[in-house]
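Methods: example folding runs. The two proteins below were folded one after another, and each record is reproduced exactly as written to the output file, sequence line first and structure-token line second.
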Amino acid sequence: MYFLGGMSARHEIFPWPELSAMKKMVVGEKAAAPSRYTFDDKQRLIGDESKTLVTCPAQTDRTAVLLILGQSNAANHGGQRYRSNYGARVVNAFDKRCFIAASPLLGSTDTRGEYWTLLGNKLIESGQNDSVILAPLAYSGSQVARWAPGGDLNPMLVDTVTQLHDSGYRVTSVLWVQGEADLVHGTTGEAYQERFLSMVDTLRQNGVEAPVYISIASKCLEPSNGGFKEHIPDNAIVRAQLALSRSGQGIREGVNSDALLDGDDRYDDCHFGGTAGEKVSQAWLNLLRGESLLESSPQSSLLGPPAKAGRVLSTRITPKEYSLFPAVQQDGTGK
């Protein structure tokens, strides 16, 4: 028998665990609060009651169709949310449907912010495009091996590309933001290149002829993120990413977020905060605008030969090479 009483340093008079268990037996477990979000078995966001369904815009030569791939810094783990400033001219394409773009985007993990919608706004505001189709497929903590043939994300990549094709869309750019997980897990540079090229082969075999932009991304600090205490810029993953970007196989250098962002731009020493979203989206805008001008030149060549899995390239980073993306250097703002 238990008696009412208090608590001393040696004895807890109230039997809290027993009382809690008895309450659960009598009252039952508390039902989970309803949520506007729906996830698949891999924790990818596949439904959001707040989304506005619209007719998918027809693709023209003034439409950007961006296939967005990678891990958390390509997904909905950002510190700032954005929404389309141009209504149905910036849309989130998912499952053969289109929604006015607004954070978080369907197709990626988590429910926080992202900067791709901001990029879409900037592409239209700058006059680069009349409409922007955002097609994200990004998984927190994913290593490159999961995207290569045999990995669990490779079939989902094929499915996403197929859905875009069935919707009448031709991908104009593939934006890859990934590498932090592979650095933490010790993936070698050679293995990273082989697996990335295998993923590119998957894209090519499924009708994606667009340039693949590989970001220079490896920085994720602190144990809470599974990362390190300090970042070493010249590492195996960055060397592999730079080598791939110079392969001339339709693979191009994307935004160098490792160099572009400082400590204040990452809200937890890993993930992009609001200032990071501004800087990175502007860098992507500068890159895509610059490439568009280059491709319109008579001397330009859009793509080299298809990437071949297994080809490993080598490079070393010099202090001069490890700098901000050139387009960002030109205006000097980093925003």
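Second run, written to the same file directly after the first:
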Amino acid sequence: MPRTEQPDDVQSADAIVVGGGHNGLIAAAYLARAGLQTILVEARNQVGGCASTVTDLGARFNICNCDHSMIRAMPLLDELDLKDHGLTYLESEISAVHSSYEPDNSWVFRHHVDEHLDTLAKTHPAWVESYRKYLDDALPIARLVIEMARTAPSTGNFLQRVASLKGRGARRLLEWSKKSALDVYETYFDDWRIWMPAVVTGPTVWGVHPSIPGTGLAGALYATKHLIRTGRPEGGSGALTDAIHRSFVAAGGQTLTSAQVVRLETCDQQVTGVSLADGRRIDARCVLVSSDPQKIFTEWLNDPALADRTTIKGWKAQPVHDGYESKLDLVIDGLPVYKFEDRLRRAVGDSDLHTPTTVIAPTPSDLEEAHQRRSEGEIATRPSLLINIPTNLDRSMQLDASEHVLSLEVLFTPYTHNWASTSEPERWLEILDSLCEPGTLRVKRWRSMTPDRYEKEFFMPRGHTPAYAGSPLATLRGKPADLTRHRGPIQGLHLAGAAAFPGAGIFGGAGRNAALRVLRDR
């Protein structure tokens, strides 16, 4: 066949993006808007990944948590014209409610520092001075972390950002990054009830113990939330990915859904495209992967000439990680009354306590049990919980005006648990009911999303989403290059997604960074 002809099952493009989660969509939109003929390949029947919103049980559910924070500080919202493509953020007066299994010591988190301290003085006056001292040290670090995340990764760019902030916080950032989260928080606070919510939304969400060295930057979590206000896309978390996809399509991008990559095509140590499970092939000299990068080297790559490369051997030798997060999606009649409400009302008056995410933090001993039982494939008696009712702020998510949607995230629910015959989801529902005043949680319909379902329905190996774990110093130095500088070990391969800098969560930095790397390398 002459080289100018192409069989019907072969397409060609300037760039292929594999993975239609928010990072993949962001990367694809940048490439298409820069004039590259870009094809986005997604294994599911719709884009959005874990940031999407779906319809089930006659209701609208966010696949993961609906709170967006770090992405709101990223320039991509403006650079991709997402407001013009329909993205609007809603904000609640209170950013979060922090509680535990003993609700009498609950407290709220407010975005503005002065308002936060005023409210804290009403609920926990003994904490105020230590919190001020914490912010004095943590705010410069948080500003520096945000600036690094906004910066296209290179040693020179990072150093310029540090210089623009006059280096304030740089030394402490490096110090904290070597410490454990527990070391950092216990430097300022002697009561676990003030720091455990940050552990839940930091190290526990990351799947690690807060005493592990290298988790210390979780200590900047509260400070970061004072700098970036938490918001929720109107219409659900998926409204973000819908807007990004519209930006991509408007620039001429093409999307293939229900298209599963099975092989990375190479020739002379250069990427030449991908092959799909249905036999189709897409040719391109640039492939940007925004899914689990380990799968590239363990399943997709079949080139003997590349097998001996040290970097590729390293990827193949990495341990396989298990997922550990689950979620209940409930359709409820009316709003529940939480047991902590009465006490908090004395401090916050009529402020909305149902819209912000409520963190139910375990005691330190409960957290130890959770880590131990996770290693045994079991779930703690009192797991870490995240509760939110997105329909209370965003009525556009209601398909029935008489019903609300409540999401309950349960942490440390290991993939190796016997999900086929477990009664754990029913137990979590009982736990949730015990946190409410009797008779006020009226559940009409519900479903459970567990690691086995995330694996099957979202193509997440063992239900796990990888996360970037590099230290600031390693990031500054560009090691490893495939995750910090978004260049893979094969010419034309670029890595994005949660495993790459700046990491997991609804962030978007990895997708933007990888796309900018592709454009700089052309």
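Comment on the second run: The chain has three domains: 10-53+236-320+466-521, 91-111+322-450, 113-228.
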